[in-house]
Amino acid sequence: MLKSITIKNFIIINELTVHFESGFTILTGPSGSGKSLVFKAMAFCFGKKVDRGILKDPSLPCEVELTMDLSQLSTDYPHKLVIKRTLLPNGKSRYLLNEDSIKVTELQKIYQALFNYSEQHQHYTLLDQTTHLDYLDEFAETDCESLETAFNDFKEKRRQFDQFERARLQFDEPTVAHYVDELNAFFEEGSDYELLQDHILQLKDIAHLKSSAEQLQASINLGKAQGLIHELLDAEIPEALSSSLIQFQDAQKEALDAIHQFLDEDRTLKLSELTKRMNHWHDLARKHQVHPMDLSDTFQQLQESLSLFQSTDMDALRHTLKDAETTYQQIATSISNKRHDQAEVLSQHMTQWMQRLGIKNGIFKVEVLPAIPSAMGIDQVAFKVATNIGQEPLPLSGVVSGGELSRIGLAIEEVCQSQLVAVQLLDEVDVGISGAVAEQVATLLYKRSQKTQILCITHLPQMAMLADQHGYIEKATVDKTLKFTFKYLGTEEREKALAELLSGETIDERGLDHARAMLSQGQQIKMNSEITAEA
Questions:
Q1: In CATH, what number is assigned to the domain containing residue 111?
Q2: Distance CA 411, CA 352 (A)
Q3: 3-class DSSP state for residue 422?
């Protein structure tokens, strides 16, 4: 279970610590008090991508630390987990698990294994038909791994067969061998086209420098500088000045000699050789009808084709492909049969849950239809519903309201979730429902909380009356600083908070009486649920 979270410098939260209990916990508070930010901080701690805009103070790091107790779970993870993420002002993140560095990819695996986070509009993903196959496979506990392995093996065998077939139709073995020998000899001097381009450009720059140096020397030789130096040397001048002029003349000669040494004939020759190689490269690329940069890839493909010619028996390759296809078809057909069988069972379960959650005449139908063979098999799945008597089941998008979709989403999680997570986070997923239906949904969540910790942000009094704990988050400005506080409500505070959910900020004795009655009703529902579970 999740024990606590500490949040620092996160969006609008300066600092906040929340401790959690097992069972069914609801979080309420005024709009904008930071309830959803607590859940978002959890996702952030496990590596959710963010930008530096989440830093409340951009000059300080953001820190989120989670503590979990997994001693009651059968898991390979340590019983105590302390997970911490620090986002620095420069945008870099550090991740720690029990004070040791950990890769973000590993943290995300832990999050997926231990948490289920449902947001207000997340159930709208049910309108995407591509997700329906995943739900059915989770319900049916389909062995998709063996199916994917068989498909990938079949795809690779098909690739090898097609490559050999293309090579056989395009070339004969002697021709391919000639091309391989030709390209092998050419690439012995290097296969990096861009590197060759860079070398040529560098040498062209050097050639330009040589031309400039020669012009410089000619200008000096033809100019007045040499004559003036000689006139000064012939004149009667101090010995020190004469020595300086001689040194200047010698330095000039040494500098020009150094330039010529650097720009020697070898570099000019090298440029000529590399230019010839570049021209040859382009000739070979035109011959094989590829871009010069792709010539090395063509060489590799020809090597593979030659290897196939020399080592492959066409009949044996065809037989191997057929075996791989047969294996895939057998596994895909077996899984397809299982999907068809379990689709009927899932349809029945979902129909019962729809009616239990207030869609009285609801019918849920899972259709399994043929699909192009893929790593997911030979099926596609479509969920259809009818919400009125005599109505034919139709795709979800054209039938259900937002409230109905929320209930269907909660039901399908209940039915299809084969493995319970440690923590379920629900952020206003009860939108669009009220009254008796809200009570039914709350009862469902309470029963689920006997097996997994549930944290639920809600505005529904029906949720509040069934919660084991009622947490309250609020914010206030103290000394011009925004402060967030969290506390669990006692009996009288719960009555007041429930009355607020029922009637708004204006609370009278009648509202408090209604709240007390609902809390008493909630206790009775809990007792009945426990008796039913024991029976």
A1: 3.40.50.300
A2: 10
A3: coil
Instruction: Please indicate, yes or no, whether residues 100 and 213 belong to a single structural domain of this protein.
Output: no
- 8 A C-beta contact, residue 522 and residue 514: no
User: Do residue 62 and residue 179 come from a single domain?
Assistant: no
Domain that holds residue 464: 1-120+428-535
Q: Closest Cα partner for 464 from 482, 491, 485, 486?
A: 491
Q: Is the pTM of this model over 0.70?
A: no
Would you say residue 388 lies in a domain?
no
Pick the closest to residue 426 from 102, 122, 88, 146 (CA basis). Answer: 122
In the sheet that holds 481-488, the strands lie side by side as 115-118, 423-427, 453-457, 24-28, 469-478, 481-488
> Is residue 172 located within the same domain as residue 106?
no
Same domain, 259 and 186: yes
pLDDT in tens, the chain (535 residues): 999 999 999 998 989 999 999 999 999 988 878 888 999 999 999 999 888 889 999 999 999 999 999 988 878 889 999 999 999 999 899 999 999 999 999 999 999 889 888 776 666 778 889 989 999 999 999 999 999 999 999 999 999 888 878 777 766 778 888 888 988 888 887 777 878 788 878 777 666 656 665 665 665 554 445 555 555 455 555 555 556 656 765 666 676 666 666 555 556 667 788 888 889 889 988 988 889 888 888 888 888 877 777 766 778 888 999 999 999 999 999 999 999 999 999 999 999 998 888 888 899 999 999 999 999 999 999 999 998 888 899 998 777 777 778 788 888 888 887 566 789 888 877 777 788 888 888 888 898 898 899 999 988 999 999 999 999 998 888 877 888 889 999 999 999 999 988 887 778 888 899 999 999 999 998 888 765 555 4
Given 255, 282, 314, which residue is the final one in a domain?
Answer: 314
Q: What pairs with residue 329 in β-bridges?
A: none
Helices then strands, counting H and E runs in the chain, come out as 16, 15
- Please report whether residue 422 resides in a domain: no
User: Quick one: DSSP state of residue 391?
Assistant: P
Residues 232 and 113 in one domain: no
